[in-house]
User: Fold this.
Amino acid sequence: MRRFVVSALATGALLAAAGTASADDLVAPESLARCFLKETPSTPIVQHAAKQGPYKIAFSNSYYGNNWRTEMLNIASAYAKQPQVAKYVGKFEIQNAGNNVAQQVAQIRQMILARYDAIVVNAASPSGLDSVIGQAVRQGIVVVAFDNTVTTHEAVNVDESQYDMGRLWAEFLAKETGGKGKILMVRGLAGTTVDNDQGDGAMDVFKKYPDIHTVQVYGNWDVGLNQKVAADALATNHDLAGVWGTEGMTGTLQAFLQVGAQLVPMTSESDNGFMMLAVQHKMPALVIGQSPALVAAAMRAAIAVLAGQAVPRDANIPLNPVTTDEMKAGANYFPDQPNSFVTNISIPQCAIDIPVHDVVK
Amino acid sequence: MKPPEAKERRRGGVEKHAGPLSCAVGLVVLIGLYAIRQPLILSPFGLASLANVSVALALAAVGQTLVLLTAGLDLSIGAEITLINCFAATTMGSSALSVASVVVASLVIGLALGAFNGLVVAYGRIEPLIGTFCTSFIFAGSALIILPRPGGSVPDGFAAALTGNWGPLPFSLVLLAAAVLLVWVPVFGSRLGRYITAIGDDPESARISGLPVRRVALASYMLAGLFSAIAALFLAAETTSGDPSIGGIYTLNSLAAAVLGGVSLMGGRGTVMGPILGSFVLSIILNALGVFNVSAFWQDFIEGLILMLVLGLGGFRVLRAASWLAVLRQ
Assistant:
């Protein structure tokens, strides 16, 4: 017993030490390894000779008309000003091109001219920037793409695994339902890569349980459409055991509440509204989502490569699943923010911690 | 004393060049302001960047102008660009022969898409606004069928030939000049060009005078399709790939660039330099907003405001007509 306590204390101390180290040093190899996971075991490593800081970093964004992108832009500005980041960053600038590939190409060419050390990109087209990214890399500029990543191997890609998201949601439901019953899948936008990946992750789990049956509908990641398709599905399915859902699940949950249907375990992306309702009704839920703080992870990857550290060329950022009993007001959901607020604004494994008042401005 | 119509003609002549002239002045001022902030923009690489970001829009705007001159309107230009861009990027391959044949095929497809528009509008007697809006969905849908997500590839040599620079001379400007010299100049040196202007100026009297109104309208949409194809090939070179959403922005912006360059939305009046300079001004403003650190949230606002002002300006010119009857007749 005693030994157990001691070792627990020692582990705690170690963890604390690791915690401070990662907060202190953005480019410590062990801290980077916790944040940037290889996408596949064969993913190559990117490492260049270290450059003298502080660095000039530019962020070339494409579209910026939704909550996620707005939070992303605010997080990027806030992260660049945090002391542990600011000591590496001499100049940080954001430019938006809209969904206009030609303008984003021109914007990146202008960043090449302005001699930035690194360019972080949320791309308007996965392949359309390949040529200009090649030009940047040949000028010795580090290019890191995230969220809408790029197909060229000259850039570092930083993203979260949508397949794993779909898989974790499905595993949660399989456990909650005891591996049997009818699962309603409220999917995203048919035909998109993200929807296919999330759906594949789910089906790879569900097909292991012969007693689980799925009903699939498409909610296009939209709250209103989620509510409609869920209401339709509820009208014909009275025996649902769980709901596997992604973005827009606030609508699905509202459809259940509207008809007074028995609440069942549900999954969702990080919608504030969904989390508030889940807590209020004590409904078992699992929330995982693409974090708008991915931009900060991409900035950190750029700084690490400039500082001569190794980063996987295609890096996955760890996911942060949250179940209903782990939901804490003001920590991972925010009752004073609108329903549409994207709640996962921090990535602890990457030592990225953004206060909520920096995200809503 | 000069007869009144001579005076009228001279006023028309001045007005015809007011658009391009003010754009030229605006362009010089813009590049000057830009250079104060970023002197390297005057380097060969910088000048090529400015030319490259503007040339696709310039080609689209010249095509749009051809249709506007006949008092038509082409809302499918963006979708034509998208479709041909996807076609070129998926089929180009890497041998010189395949590149050459895909370039020729793209130009032919451009003419064919334009002919389809022309048939719908001139022979199907559907309003250009509605007709080309509908065909734009057919073209955009076909692009998604060819290339559901961005991809394809374009050989580096082809990309460098269109987007590189030789000293301070960007190849993209050479392409634009070639397109104007090989298409616009011969067309407007021939009877077709005079018919295009005549029909746009007054379709009714053109018809009564026995001009082949429908065939001329058909030809103008085909030429617009041809310019769309050149723009699409240029975009393929600039992005070394195809993208089923790449063209969307060129529809409205080509209209705005044409009007900014003094082309009348009512037909019959416009030059080739107007839309070209208008495109450069519009593209460089959008590009400079980023460089001048204009907040992300204001950029869309300003872009919309410019579009509205420019398109509103076109309407204002109509309202200045001699009598309200003339306005109502438009």
Residues 2-24 of chain A form the longest helix (23 residues).
